[in-house]
């Protein structure tokens, strides 16, 4: 799998719960149609492990078959619609692309 990982923080005037509800609901509906999307995992951050990790509300990992499929999705009208949906929300994010390798499974 090839992943797009997004770490995001809510806008300053939203609660954590509002942001997670929006992300997993309204925003998810706009994101599901991404071409080539194979899986989407979302984590609602409940706490930071250490002070330097504070300030984040959620982590999404969107998975595609390979880098070409991920880049095609990012060039699509569906991605443009998802970006428009976020609009001028004023939250912050970190967006990363990379190849997934399973390192352990119980």
Number of strand elements: 4
- Widest beta sheet: strand line-up: 2-3-1-4
User: What overall geometry do the principal axes of the alpha carbons give?
Assistant: globular
Q: Cα distance, first to last residue? A: 19 Å
Poorly predicted runs of 5 or more residues: none
* Element pattern in H and E: EHHEEHHE
Radius of gyration equals: 14 Å
Largest sheet: 4 strands, antiparallel
The helix count comes to 4
- Percent of residues in beta strands: 25-35%
The residue fraction in helices comes out at 25-40%
Q: Specify the structural class.
A: alpha+beta
On the 0-100 scale, what is the average pLDDT?
A: 96
Offer a few descriptive terms.
alpha+beta; 4-stranded antiparallel β-sheet
Describe the 3D structure.
This protein is of the alpha+beta class and 106 residues long. Helices cover 31% and strands 27% of the residues. The protein is built from 4 helices and 4 strands. The chain has a 4-stranded antiparallel sheet. The radius of gyration is 14 Å and the shape is globular. The mean pLDDT is 96. It comes from Pseudonocardia lutea. Pfam families: EthD. InterPro entries: Dimeric_a/b-barrel (IPR011008), EthD_dom (IPR009799).
Structure described in brief:
InterPro entries: Dimeric_a/b-barrel, EthD_dom. With 106 residues, the protein is α+β, with helices and mostly antiparallel strands.
Question: Secondary-structure blueprint of this entry?
Answer:
Layout: E1 2-9, H1 16-24, H2 26-31, E2 39-44, E3 58-64, H3 67-74, H4 77-86, E4 92-99
Antiparallel strand pairs: 1-3, 1-4, 2-3
Protein name: EthD family reductase
InterPro entries: Dimeric_a/b-barrel, EthD_dom
Domain EthD: 12-83
């Amino acid at each position: 799998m090839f992943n797009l990982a997004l770490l995001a923080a809510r806008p300053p005037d939203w609660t954590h719960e509002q942001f997670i509800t929006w992300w997993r609901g309204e925003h998810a509906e706009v994101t599901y149609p991404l071409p080539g999307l194979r899986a989407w995992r979302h984590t609602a951050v409940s706490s930071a492990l250490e002070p330097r990790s504070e300030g984040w509300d959620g982590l999404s990992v969107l998975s595609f078959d390979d880098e070409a499929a991920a880049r095609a999705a990012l060039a699509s009208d569906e991605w443009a619609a998802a970006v428009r949906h976020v609009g001028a929300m004023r939250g912050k994010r970190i967006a990363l692309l990379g190849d997934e390798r399973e390192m352990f499974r119980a």
